[in-house]
Amino acid sequence: MLDMNLIHKALANPLRRDILGWLRAPAATFPDDYAGHGRGVPVHAIQARSGLAQSTVSMHVALLVEAGLLVPRRVGQWVFLSRNEEAIRTFTEQIRMHL
Asked: Are strands 70-75 and 78-83 parallel, antiparallel or unpaired?
C-alpha cells in the first residue's frame, strides 16, 4: 500500500521531481555509459547531473525510495535506480479519483 502523504512529501521538492523526470527517459538524459543497460541509472550519475554533493543527493534518493517511487538495485559496489512505474501509476490514479 502506498503512503500517499509520503509521496506528496517526496514530490514537494524540485530536485526529487527532477530525478523522477530524468529517470523517465534515462537513455536520453544520461550518457550511454550511465544508461545501466536495463538495471537503471547509477546513483553517481544522478549526483553528477545534479551538481550537488553526494550526501545531499543520497538524502533525496532515500526519500524517493522510502516513498516507493524509486527501485534500487545493488550490483557489486554500485546502486542502480529506476522508477517504480506501478507505484507512480497507482499514485496518479489515486489523485485522479480523489481530487
From this structure: antiparallel
Domains: count for the chain: 1
Q: Which three cell numbers stand for residue 57?
A: 543527493
- Does this model's pTM top 0.85? yes
- Can you give the residue range of the structural domain that contains 65? 4-98
What local confidence, expressed as pLDDT, does residue 33 receive?
A: 66
Which residues are registered as beta bridge partners of 70? 83
Q: Which of 47, 26, 46 is nearest to 37 (CA)?
A: 26
Residue 97 in grid coordinates: 479519483
Where residue 74 sits, what CATH number does that domain have? 1.10.10.10
Low-confidence ranges of the chain (pLDDT < 50): none
Task: Calculate the CA 12 to chain-centre distance.
Answer: 14
What is the Cα 74 distance to its own chain's centre? Answer: 15
**Number of Cβ atoms within 10 Å of the Cβ of 71:** 17
